[in-house]
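Hi Prof. W.,

I finally got the Pyridoxamine 5'-phosphate oxidase prediction working! I wasn't sure whether to trim anything, so I left the full sequence exactly as given:
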Amino acid sequence: MLASESVGRIAWSAGSGQIIRPITYVYADPVIGFRTAPDGRLAELVRPTAVAFEVDRLDDLHNEAVSVIVQGVTSGANRESGRPGWVDQVVPWAGGARELAIEVHITKITGRRIHRGHS
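And this is what came out:
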């Protein structure tokens, strides 16, 4: 499901408390990649940071919901050898320059599928 969706939420702990932000992403196994503004809150994730990432899908036709949760560690994706190929695949929804590329190096994936009961 990570590969079929494009919007998720990333969460981490900062000095001011827990932070959750929506992001537009690509899944480029074994990483989740996204772009952000260099002066935005997400830019702090260029440094190695433990994060959780979640993506959900609701399917009314089949009466089910799927949630995938990823645990991982972030890093900057701008390398001396060049940018990884996934960078140009991300199309951020937010306006402005979003040229800072960040990767979530996946350490664990969990999830659940819920079927809606009939009443």
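Strands lie at 7-14, 17-28, 31-36, 50-59, 64-76, 100-115. Does that look reasonable to you?

Thanks,
D.
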